[in-house]
Amino acid sequence: MIIHMMLLMVIMGGCDVNVPETRAFQDEFTREFMQSTKETEEGYYTFESGTGGYTMLFPTNARIGDGTYYKPANEYERYSVANQKKEENITSGIRITYENNPSMENIDINLSVLSMKAGYEGEYETFEIEGNVYNYASYVYETLNGIANHYFISFIKSENSTQGIMFIYSASCLDSGEECEIDVGYEEEVAKKIMTSIEFKDGD
Predict the structure, then answer these.
(1) Cβ-Cβ contacts under 8 Å for 20 (sequence gap 6 or more)
(2) Beta pairing, strands 199-200 & 54-59
(3) E strand or H helix at 152, and its extent?
(4) pLDDT over threshold 60, residue 145
(5) 31 and 45 in contact (C-beta within 8 Å)?
């Protein structure tokens, strides 16, 4: 990660024309985690964890809240991602907690922790993709004023190491006092696209 950060600094310092006009790169803190100024696929860069433990797709129009980022060691990382569509009055966000610890092997305990963090009381479905096991659920939480918050959550466990991620994606109205039309199918597609793009690096 250090090498690609240095390369990005050289590119951005020497030739501003190469800096994308995207929220991810216009935000000084967020761009430190992007592997390249080029999109990995349309609408997404590749994010590399500050722990070096994993990579994933990252929306070009999102940013990491630097005040939410916490990494006391390479075995643990926590942060939030925000993506606002002001013209549609929609906000979506991701809360991620990464840990490389033998405690990640206890799926039941980790699902209990995830449920508590997300305020979820239901069951999870399980599926596997390319060496990762996903325990996934989606639900709607309605506030007292009737605003619907849509959640897509997962505990993602590497089959080859003690690494795991708690992933909480949410979408709601940006201004709770105004109505908005959330395309739930689209938001779930984005959530699953990001979570299933996670690639853990080898290592215990």
Answers:
(1) 37, 60
(2) antiparallel
(3) strand 148-158
(4) yes
(5) no
